[in-house]
Amino acid sequence: MIATIAKHQLLLLRRQRIFLGMMCLFLAMAAAAGMLGWSSHHTIVRVYDDAKQLLANAGKPAPPNPFLLTPPLSLLSNMTIYIPLLGALLALVLGHLSMIEDQTDGTGRLIFSRPVSRTTYVLGTMASASSALAAILAASWWVSALSLAIVHRSIPSVQEFGQLTLFYGLSWSYMFAFALIGMVTVLLTQRRSLALLSAIGVWLIVTFAVPQFTSGLRPSASLNPITDPVSTSQRFFKVTAKARPYSVVEQYKAASGRILQTATAEPVWETMRRVLPLAILIIGLVLATIRLVQQHDFSRSASNE
Amino acid sequence: MSIAIIEVRNLSHQYDSTPVLQGINLTIEPGEVFGFLGHNGAGKTTAVNIMTTLIVPTSGTATVCGHDVVNERRDVARCIGYLPSEVRLYGHMTATENLVFFAKLSGVSNPHAAAAETLEYLDCTDLANLRVGSFSSGMRQRIGIAQAVLHRPKVLFLDEPTSGLDPLGVRQLRETIIRLNQDLGMTVFMNTHLLSEVAKVCTTIGVLSHGELIYKESIAETLRRFPDEASLEDIYVRMEVTGG
């Protein structure tokens, strides 16, 4: 029964234009991350070649190509920004669409007048959302792998494929949390528009507001792929910066940076500790979603506004 | 005497301390077409929501097909079909896709065959491969009925089934209800405002007023008891005014 509900939800998602549009945009951004990586690589190599030529003409030895010193996966560093910005937004919309129709169009009444338990329904819905995210990220994985292969003119190593898979696995978890937020807001609000607006509000707080407080009001905190050290003289922000280990977006970026080797090396347990707040958030949201569906009055349709 | 297919005892429900149903007692025999009448906010939909297991009553009991609606929810769900008022179905899916989905949820062994057979029975095969989002309210209502009966339930609950239908749609619906009752032996429980339809379709009526069941009798007995009233509408108005 869970599979029946999941397949049904996937079919519905496939036919929603807004979802398809956002998915295409997300994949385009994944390709753009590769393009930007290729462009910066191309620029560095060109400058290096020019400098090497000049040095050779002056009879001086040239230093090694700096690009060869950077890890190959660091080309994808922009992806650690696209996931919290566009990926999370896509996941919010996906979570919202997974549940809103049953709420506003009265189909929830039809489902629950059948021999279907509410737990089955919510697990089926979560399975469809997680599968849809996995499919999108799998496509993005291919785009990234292709970008790496084109830039380096060689197939990435098994270790690099493993790191790439780990990064996308972490990104799946991050996006799944936002899909759950999209579902929870549908269950907590009485209007379609309010549900989406509330979900976007949560996304804004998590992605933009919290990093401001935990980074000492650094304006670029949300848009920088690398998490900077906190430097503030204000007492208030020194206190709020202590919440940084619990800032899901910053910890996601830091852990992703470690996986893609764009950040300073650290012990594996330290990276795993960074993922802990996200894991706790997902568990909390899964339990909250199940509880809310069990308690929700599907006999009353919400406003379709 | 046959065993009641719907049995309601001292059923009460309240929303945020506002009483909606107040100690209703009701018995429906198999094969009846029961018309549940009442003003807006009388509690008709709440009663149907309880009997279709969508909400749990504040107090009292209700059994459908011999199963308790609270403790044997799944057993009740297996023997009922339900068409809520103003249902939209899944607009991005075709009529067949909608029906196959609900057939699977109902545990029908061959969902595609059940969907095709039901569409044919209700004379809707022309709608099979069209997306429901493009349907008129009449077409949607026909597919709504199809989803409610495709697993051949013993009891069919219809909540304001004629709302939004044109006269032709109302007539088609009436004919469908009669066929389902006579051909398939379904017991029909219908919430409605349309008294003209009640007189043509129902075998029994019940009148709910401010959460209390003030009248329940067969149509024939009702017309015999109120010989001076010109129509069922007059009888209904008189019951509402006099409280039964």
Question: What's the layout of helices and strands?
Answer:
The complex is a heterodimer of chains A (305) and B (244).
Chain A: H1 2-14, H2 17-57, H3 66-69, H4 79-104, H5 107-112, H6 118-152, H7 158-188, H8 192-214, H9 235-240, H10 248-259, H11 268-295
Chain B: E1 6-15, E2 18-28, E3 33-38, H1 44-51, E4 59-64, E5 67-68, H2 73-79, E6 80-83, H3 95-105, H4 111-121, H5 137-149, E7 155-159, H6 167-183, E8 187-191, H7 195-201, E9 204-209, E10 212-218, H8 219-225, H9 232-242
Parallel strand pairs in B: 3-8, 3-9, 6-7, 7-8
Antiparallel strand pairs in B: 1-2, 1-4, 4-5, 9-10
Helix pairs in contact in B: 3-4
What does this structure look like?
Chain A is an all-alpha fold and 305 residues long. Chain A has one domain (2-295). Chain A contains eleven helices and no strands. Chain A has helices at residues 2-14, 17-57, 66-69, 79-104, 107-112, 118-152, 158-188, 192-214, 235-240, 248-259, 268-295. Chain A is globular. The mean pLDDT of chain A is 85. With 244 residues, chain B is of the alpha/beta class. Chain B has one domain (6-242): P-loop containing nucleotide triphosphate hydrolases (Rossmann fold). Chain B has a six-stranded mixed β-sheet, with helices on both faces. In chain B, strands 2-1-4-5 form a four-stranded antiparallel β-sheet, with helices on one face. In chain B, helix 3 packs across helix 4 (111-121). The radius of gyration of chain B is 18 Å and the shape is globular. Chain A binds chain B through residues 1, 4-5, 8, 11-12, 15-16, 101, 105-107, 109-117, 297-299, 301, and chain B through 45, 49, 52-55, 73-75, 77-78, 80, 82, 84, 86-93, 97, 101-102, 104-107, 147, 157.
Keywords:
heterodimer; A: 305 residues; mainly alpha; 11 helices; B: 244 residues; alpha/beta; Rossmann fold; 6-stranded mixed sheet; 4-stranded antiparallel sheet; 9 helices; 25% strand; globular
